[in-house]
Amino acid sequence: MSTSVKEHYDRLLARHYTWMFGDPETVIKRTEQWFEDHGLRAQGARRALDLGCGSGFQSIALARLGYAVDALDFCQPLVEELRMRARGLPVIAQNMDIRHFDMAGLRDFDLIVCMGDTLVHLESREEVRKLLGDCAHCLKSGGRLVLGFRDMTQALEGPARFVPVRSGTDVVFTCFLEYEPETVHVYDVIHTRYENEWTMHVSDYRKLRLDPQCVAGQAQEVGFTLDKTERDHGFVHIIATRQ
Questions:
Q1: How is residue 74 annotated by DSSP?
Q2: CA distance readout (Å), 212 to 174, 189, 219
Q3: Which CATH architecture has domain 158-207?
Q4: pLDDT per residue over 52-94, tens digit each?
Q5: Fold of domain 5-152+209-242
Q6: pTM for the full model?
């Protein structure tokens, strides 16, 4: 039986999370440019909410673009890392399960982003729909929603299920994927070297196989108008406006 997503992050992934993306500043600048290119720079005093913020690539980019940012994640080490990296910026980072953010009194946002693998980390399509409804409730009229998630609807086969993530002098990170009807069973395999001795660490969890059209339809059902859907290197991005 696989571990929960939170257990997986706490047990293994959190300490390698930022490293696996490469240089943090490069990732933040690329993210900032993506928001710029999609017309999402803040105009005047604006508030943004980053759901599943991780170590803060989106949060910091949005703060640099003029937003006051609330950032939520269930992984305490990543929240602490964001707090350290965002010093001097208008970012409030909290350790919180995003499935319950609507009960925390967070309201009246101009922009909500839920990017990376956050949506596919939820346990069911019903939880995805509820989260979208919560976003609609917590956005101002005319507020924008940005969703980003990995499209895993097409199953990989054979050796393609082994996915190299990143390697360095002392760390090698590989994923192995098993496709199931509704989910993908993910095995993160990380080899680390200490004093010329290599140790293997393995942890597994499941991700939802979300159909982009289904997610877009759910967003419309809870009160959003779709502005744009695009695909880029296996990721889907949906931009919508609260009616």
A1: S
A2: 26, 28, 11
A3: Single Sheet (2.20)
A4: 999 999 999 999 999 999 999 999 999 999 999 999 999 999 9
A5: Rossmann fold (3.40.50)
A6: 0.95
